[in-house]
Design a protein that fits this description.
379 residues; alpha/beta; TIM Barrel; 9-stranded mixed beta sheet; two-stranded parallel ribbon; 12 helices; 34% helix
Length: 379
């Protein structure tokens, strides 16, 4: 585990609290069963009940003997994050504010579309990156999420959407994107553990081709991610020069554009049928010129790439504006003329602050409001 992960590690489970089976690897589950004197097949049975059927009550696991179920209930639990608030946008987007065991909160978003349903999952409480255009970036990093808290977000969404047992066909949640709160590659070990659980064919059974991990450019972990997880990669690019990217994305000072794009060129498993997605938020007067578009074409040369153009979604206190629609269209046309796919992402869920770049826990908003309310009395 890297230094960053150690510094912001999830809290240990309370000694008096029953051990949560969610988030354990298959091997860890086998080890827990061995501690009860049970054979490995018990772990396989539990895996099925937890991740295929979504059951949280041992008493409902009817293929297990009553005695064994009672013993499990004495020592273990099957917990997910608690839903603090659930909101539904006018466009059908859903957002859950999830309360974690230590009182911290994260947000998870489900975006239904005609051909897919995408669940946007968080990897940290807050974020360490302080990107200037992102609401989450204004919330300080509190800690990394544990595997149970990451995979638990998928399970909560399936609870709400009625997706148990895990459907093989016709499922509403077809795609998982690690694009919520936090930088996934600064919490690589826990994210990887959760993704492996999500991909397991005997459980949640989400294909690796349907999982996308988004990074702002943590170069040292990118190759490892591709080699070990083989999931799709999305890169938050948002600028075509180091000068501008330094200003709006401080991580660029550590891993500048050339280093980042070299890592993209060597990302394992990339080819024309499986491109890297580059996220590019359109900021008026900052990164949206025709010169930027032509520079972007040059930067992406030799990389199987798709560029998602994202109109900036304002949030309370933001000082950027979105580029004009005609400017975005011209930008997309320049990329398309160079044979780079450049769809303009439709804004979804902005009325409930669920759109790209808007996520920030309600607890942070409430705390800020309370501080502002009490401040005059203290002066």
């Amino acid at each position: 585990m890297n230094h960053h992960a150690e510094a912001f590690a999830p809290p240990q489970e309370d000694r008096d609290e029953k051990r949560n089976l969610v988030g354990l690897t298959r091997d860890q589950l086998v080890a827990e069963m061995a501690g009860l004197g049970e054979k490995p097949f018990r772990a396989k049975q539990l895996w099925h009940w937890i991740y295929h059927r979504g059951v949280t009550d041992f008493a409902a696991m009817t293929t297990l003997s009553k005695d064994f179920r009672a013993r499990l209930a004495e020592t273990f639990a099957v917990r997910r994050p608690a839903v603090g608030e659930a909101q539904v946008s006018r466009d059908g987007t859903r957002k859950w504010l999830l309360r974690l065991a230590d009182g911290n909160e994260v947000e998870t978003v489900y975006i239904p579309e005609e051909d897919r349903g995408t669940l946007c999952v968080s990897s940290q409480v807050g974020c360490t990156l302080t990107c200037k255009f992102c609401h989450t970036g204004t919330q300080r990093l509190v800690r990394n999420l544990a595997p149970a808290e990451i995979v638990g977000q998928i399970m909560v969404a399936r609870d709400d959407l009625g997706e148990w047992p895990a459907p093989a066909e016709g499922r509403q949640i077809t795609n998982i994107v690690l694009m919520g709160m936090g930088e996934p590659l600064y919490n690589y070990d826990n994210v990887a553990a959760a993704i492996k659980i999500a991909m397991d064919p005997e459980g949640l059974s989400v294909s690796k081709r349907k999982i996308t991990l988004s990074t702002s450019g943590v170069v040292p972990e990118m190759e490892r991610c591709g080699r070990e997880l083989d999931v799709n990669l999305a890169v938050s690019l948002h600028a075509t020069s180091d000068d501008v990217r330094d200003r709006i994305m401080p991580i660029n000072k550590k891993y500048p554009l050339k280093m980042l794009l070299d890592a993209c060129r060597s990302y394992p498993g990339t080819h024309n049928a499986r491109r890297i997605t580059f996220e590019y938020v359109m900021l008026k007067g900052v990164n949206d010129s025709e010169e930027d578009a032509r520079r972007l074409v040059k930067l992406l040369k030799g990389i199987p790439a798709k560029v998602n153009l994202i109109p900036f979604n304002p949030w309370p206190g933001s000082f950027f504006e979105s580029s004009e629609p005609a400017v975005i269209t011209r930008f997309a046309d320049i990329l398309s003329a160079a044979h780079i796919s450049a769809p303009v992402r439709a804004t979804r869920g902005d009325d409930i602050l669920a759109a790209c770049g808007q996520l920030k826990s309600a607890s942070e908003r409430r705390k800020k409001a309370e501080r502002e309310t009490t401040l005059p009395a203290q002066l």
